[in-house]
Every structure is written in structure tokens, then in C-alpha cells.
Amino acid sequence: MNTTRRSARFAASAAVAAFALLAAGCGSLTTSGQDAEGEANSVDEGFTVGLLLPESKTARYDKFDKPYFEEALSERCDKCELLYQNADQETAKQQSQAEAMLTDGVDVLVLDAVDSEAAASIVKNAKGQGVPVVAYDRLAEGGVDYYVSFDNEEVGRVQGRALLEALDSEEAGDDAEIVMINGSPTDPNAGDFKSGAHEVLDGQVDIAKEYDTPDWSPDRAQTQMEQAITAVGADDIAGVYSANDGMAAGIVAALKSAGVDDLPPITGQDAEIAGIQRVAAGEQYMTVYKAIRPEAEIAADMAVAAATGEEYDGGEHGLTQVEDASGEKVDAVLLEPVSVTEDKIEETVVSDGFYTVEDICTEDFADTDFCTEMAE
């Protein structure tokens, strides 16, 4: 399967990208399930799929999501062509990438939005040209055709429960003070994580400081943690809710810079290799493992169904319905997240082949309890 565009196509896309928006305003150019000539798309003949991922600060997208999706699409449609772009956390860049793909004649878009509200223009532009849109991991507004992700409020609940368990094991008490460092305010998933975490934590601990973190930036998270340390006092912070692993890295750095040797329990998400290594080393209490392969495979199923005009029934997972921020109802598959503490590393990310023991147990982590046990 061809995963790149010829340089001439890039040039042509850039030259006529504006036409895509103009054409979209003139009415539907194609019908969903058909190509530009009105012929039905088919797996036998192949068609073009556009995959738009949001950023590269989080390691998962280029390392896992894209190759897993590419593999799944190839298995389902070996004559299909995949066009791929990463927006590097820039809303305008993702907009331009989508316009270029539509100009190139993609038959379906799989979109993980940088900004879900802003992405409504991408969705409406695509649908105006008869191109269906599958929302991947984040629910873009504008009336997408399908959505696949995880139960994001449950992610927050999983993180919150894990933090309470850690605080309980350390006998922190009911008046324990914690800091909450949430994700990007432009990412609706971050709002769901935050809501789920509050559902568990409110009334159980004292949330001394709470921040939202633009762009999920580890650097901003580090600065926020430094502010919390100044306001609360390093010794009085019993735990930290971090919405993902990247920000947890900044939080750990801030605590160490403040002279904290015995780190409080810190949550995370995404099971990044650095996060798993911190869990193994006792620097991060837990991370949330979201099995990306089934998510990517379901997205491929949805894309093939949408491009060929077939109904997708959700397979073994079944379909549920969710509402985007504007009230549009969308057929969705929501997968279950898994908590990974030090004692769960082997049975989750290692057992699933997400990482090998060698990936985790590099020289700097060889002396951790986990790596020592794996070496025996």
C-alpha cells in the first residue's frame, strides 16, 4: 500500500487547496460511498484514506497509532492508499492538511483533532464534498460519521481511584492535599478525564491547587507544579493527579528540583515508555494503558465501511451513541482503559507486546525491582 504522496501531488494540493473550500460551499461534490466520478468505492478496487493525527509531543501517535492503522487498513483493503499527516499540535496546520487531502481526492478522513471545536470546519468541508469522517480518539465537532476512543470519563476515574489507593496505602489521611494538573482545555478528552477524576476525588482529598495545561505541554506542567510547590509547600503535597505521562515527567522534574527525594504518588496516562520506566522506578505511581491496536483496527473498520457506504455495527464491541459539544449524536465504540502500576507492567504492556522487557529495562532502569525480577 502506498503511504506517501508524490511530490507533484503535494505541489498540486498546495496550489489548489483554496478551491476545496470554495467547492464545498457550492454543494456536495460526491456522495458518501462513491468516488469523484460517482462510482461506488469498493475494497476490490481500492480507495484513498486520509489519516490526520494531532501532535508529536506524545510518542504514541507516530510510533503506534499510525503504523497500527496502516497495518489494519492494508489487511482490510490491500489496494487502498493511505495519506498521512501529523499537525504538530497546530490547529491551522491540521486545517491545511485536511484541505490538501480533500483536494487530493480522499474518499474518507480519519481525524484526531488538535482542537475539536475548530475541527468542525474540517468535518463540514469534508461532508460538503461527500467525504465521510471518522473521529479517532477525540470527538471532533461538526457531525462526524463514526467515533472510536476510550471511555474517557472512566480514564479519569481509573486515575482517581489509583491515586486514592496510593494515598490510603501511605496513610495520608482524609485531609491529604493533592495537586491536579489536567490536560489541554481545547481537547474534550481532557475535560472528560478531569470530570471522571473529580467524581472520585472530590470529598476524599483536599485539592490544594488545580491547573489546565495548554497543549498537554510537559514544560507548562513543570511550571505549574513549581507554582503549586511554592503555594502549598513541597512537604505538604501528598499526591499529584497528572492527566498524562508527558506532563508527569515535568511534574517529577519540578519535585526533584525542589529537593523532594521521596516523591508522592503521581498518576499518568498513555503508557509511554518513559512513563512505564518511571512506574518501574517508583517515580510515578501509575499510568493508564489504552490498547491502541484495537482502537486503530476499529478505526480502519469504520473508515472502510464509511468509504464504501456500508453500515458498521461495532463488531464484538457493539455501538453506543455519544453527543459532541454541539449536540450531534454519533455512533461510537468506547473501549475500556486499564490501570498499570508496577506490579501490572508484565501482564499488560509486556504481555500485549506493546513493549518488550528490553525496551523497559535499559541501563538506567536495570536495577529496578521490576527489571531485576524479569532478569531472573
From TrEMBL:
It comes from the Bacteria. Keywords: Signal. Residues 50-311 form the Periplasmic binding protein domain. InterPro entries: Bact_Solute-Bind_Prot2, Peripla_BP_I, SBP_2_dom. Its main location: other. It is found in: Cell envelope. The keyword Signal applies. Gene3D superfamilies: 3.40.50.2300. This is Sugar ABC transporter substrate-binding protein. It comes from Nocardiopsis suaedae.
